[in-house]
Amino acid sequence: MKKQIAYIILILFGFTNCSKTDYFGEVNTETSDYIPGKGVFIVNEGNYTAGNASISFYNFYTHKVYNSIFYNQNKRPLGDVAVSMNIINGLAYIVVNNSGKIEVVNPLDFNSIKTISGFASPRFILAVNTQKAYVSDLRSPFVSIINLETNTISGSIQCGKSTDKMIKVGKLVFVCNWSEYYVHQPNNTIMVINTETDQLIDSIVLGKEPNSMVVDKNNKLWVLSSGGYNNEMFPELNCINTNSLQIEKTLTFQSKYLSPEGLCSNKTADSLFYINNHIYKMSVNDNQLPISPIIYKNYHLFYALAMDPGNNELYISDAIDYNQNGFVFRYATNGMGLDSARMGIIPGFFCFN
What we know:
The chain is mainly beta. Helices cover 2% and strands 47% of the residues.
């Protein structure tokens, strides 16, 4: 996502007037044993070309954070720039972007099962059914098809543009066309794939650089667009009818120099949340964007946002200066801070187990 490198933050941690009791619990070092269970995996991107990506895990039952669990279990680095992770058919699929691979691991012990290679620059993996998954790619004009029984690339879907975030609604998969850097086509569309035929069937033109999507309680697709890396257009939040594929509502931000991202929804899918420096909340019935945030960033650099679907709590990462280990904060949906803990370098994605 578009990120502006911030000034070096002098105070590294905390809510207003917080103390060390605001941690999730004991923050285990990489020598600690990983204890599986219900919780959330945090994908730490690491620095580009440094090969220092990692995975952390917060266990809801032990209230402890386990860092560097892939390295600790497999005695080798995860790779260069881990972007996302998904649990499919009981296995964890970790997408490592600049290494051009997906690491498949057993989430019970985090031992490696297989490495799927052959991608140019993979971004996200989405299960279509129990037999196949789609993988988006930053540098290729197609979506790769994965055979989940063999964990191999079995084909591709030509899109003509680079692909990024994906979401499934019925037999359709909606795909963000987020970047135009490597595949030089306008990055202002949501592409529509028929999962029964594995064919691109339509595209929807909206704001430039769509970066995140959710489906609400009415089965409407909400798409957040930043307006472009160079602030070419005004950012937008669009509501799309998933049956007619028509845009029903467009909410436009007031400045080209904003960079909203990280759209997510609550458990009942009637409220939306997103990052725009601060954290904002709105109803799916609203016809205008919220004016005041529910969570102020203060001295933090909010980088990623997700909703725990089980506990209905917000998880927000702080990349700090993009070089040191970042933090993850847990909030109630009313904006009340709950606790926080230190993770790896650039915590950028949450995978709830």
